[in-house]
Structure formats: C-alpha cells, structure tokens
Amino acid sequence: MTRHYYTIIDCDPGIDDAMAIMNAVASDDICVKLLSTVSGNLSIDNTLKNTLKICELLGVDIPVSRGASSPLKRQAVYATMAQGTAGFGGYQYDEVAGREISLQGEDAIHYYLHDTLSKNTTIVCLGPMTNIAKLLKKYPEDKDRIARIVFMGGSKDEEGDVAPYREFNIAYDPEATRQVIASGVPLVMIPMELGHIAYFDKAEQKLIRRMNALGKTFYKMFQNYNDYHVGRLGAAVHDSCAVLYLSFPEIFKTAPARLELKYYKAGDTEYGYVDCSLTKENKNALVCVDMDIDKFKTIVYGNLAKFC
Ligand code: RIB
Ligand code: CA
User: Fold this and answer.
1) Selection from 149, 143, 146, 160 nearest residue 195 by Cα
2) Among the listed residues 86, 276, 245, the one whose alpha carbon sits nearest the alpha carbon of residue 181
3) Do 247 and 147 meet the contact criterion of CB atoms below 8 Å apart?
4) Which of 14, 49, 274, 297 has the lowest tally of Cβ within 10 angstroms?
5) Cα–ligand 2 centroid distance for 74 (angstroms)
6) pTM of the predicted model as reported, rounded to 2 decimal places
7) For 257-278, how does the pLDDT look when each residue is reduced to its tens digit (9 = 90+)?
8) Is 238 a catalytic residue?
9) Tens digit of pLDDT for each residue in 46-72?
10) Separation CA 55–CA 201 (nearest Å)
C-alpha cells in the first residue's frame, strides 16, 4: 500500500534544497502542498526566487509562500560562500516564470503554513526554523496537526574546528530551534554528519550531467558549491537526506535522542547549537545516525531520471 505524506517543505534554496525539492516531487508517496521559503542560505528574496525557479525547472505548480526575512532575534548571516552569490552555484538565470502566493496585509509567514496544515501533516524543514517557530507561537494549537517535523540540522557529535559544531540551519536562528524543540512536536533530526557521506564526487556529478537537461542544471549548480566540511570532495546534498527519510526510512539507521538547544561563547558572540544525547533521559526526537549511501544515490539517480 502506498503511504501518502501530506507535506509542507520549508526551505532556503540553496543548491541542496533544490535537489531535495526534486526528490520530493519525484516521490510518488509525497504530496507537497506548499513550499514555504525562509531566509538562510540567502536573503528571502533570493530563496523565494530560487524556489520559484526550481518549480519551473521541475515543471510543477506548487504554491510558494514568502517566509521570514531574518532570524527571530539575530542578524542574518547568509551562506553565500557555500552556495554562491545567487544561491545556485554556477547556475545563473535571469527570469523566473512563477509568482509567490501573496496575501495583502496578512502576515503570510505563518498564515500559509496555518492554512495549509491539515491533520497529520509532515513538515520537512530544510533551512532555519524561523517560520515554524512563528507558526507555533501564533497558532499553538497547530502542534496537534503536525504529525512530525523532519529537519536537516544540527550535529549528532561534537565535530569541526569549534566544538560543538555550528551547523548552519541551527546557528542561523537558534532561538527558533529552541522554540520548536520546546513545542513538543515529534522531531526527526537529519544531522550534518549524514551530509558528509551524502555527497556526489566529480565522477558522479558528470554522470548526473549526462542524465538529462535537469542533470545538466544540477551539474552547473554543483560547480562553485563549497560545503565547508565536504569541500572539494564533492557536492554535499544534505537536504535530500531529509526528503528521502519520508519515502525510504529503511535506508536510515535511527536512534532515540534528547535534543536541547544550548549556547556557547566564542569571542563576543554567543552561538547556539543542538546538544544531541543518545543516553540522557526524556528522549524527544529520533536522530538519523547512519544511512546506506549506495541506496541513497541509486534512489536520487532514479528520481532525477524521471525528469526530462
Ligand atoms: O548545514 C547545511 C544546511 O544549511 C543545508 O540545509 C543547507 O542548504 C543550508 O541551509
Ligand atoms: Ca537548506
């Protein structure tokens, strides 16, 4: 029996967001009812425009709404170093065909999320959690309509040059993450360590380029895409892990975890990170601790092949 996930994707395209949206659209059991955009990798104008562009490239007409233009309390610090100045690496475009769904006057950030939610909606969160925090603050009762939030973010281990590791989606708006964790909504965390194995090396990128026109576009995106940890090894497609978890949970290894948003100081700045414990009591999430990367790549290739 095919499961059907009634899904909202909250995103900040971004190259890996674009590939994640492709995988969602290609998945028979995922019904994407809304693409809500948020500032993160780039400004909201850029992430919104890029979301409209990826819909055009995929040939789909999914409502796209404008979300938060800045973190709840902090200054925005974009990831143009990784994603390129326009957010699609070496892929440049001028025009975009679609238009955002817009509502005069209403603060659409949570309105469209609130209005689109039906019972048992899965929210896939591929960027900072600002929109979700705003939704749950304005409509706390919506917590009961969200089956789970599958989010790409955080780190399951202390890693990187500063421990604990500052994963981008959390570090951009830790106050939003703290509010979402506190809400008690069921969470599935896709930590950045999965993205460190979920990358396409140069040979695989050339295979993708040869597949079809969309593959050529992704190939262009991958040029000038420098994920901090994967760097020149290849294109880290973090966000696709969150989408594939919906349709293929069996290729992931998960563990119950206790997530807490914590802070640490470096210089004059207080950074937020997700403390992810597999041993503490009061578990409040599932965390993906490993994935079958060969099956992951086979599924992504199969999804891409569905497009012309
Ligand atoms: O740390 C990786 C995450 O930050 C991904 O979602 C990427 O798109 C950026 O948003
Ligand atoms: Ca993202």
Assistant:
1) 160
2) 276
3) no
4) 297
5) 18
6) 0.95
7) 999 999 988 888 899 999 999 9
8) yes
9) 999 999 999 999 999 999 999 999 999
10) 25
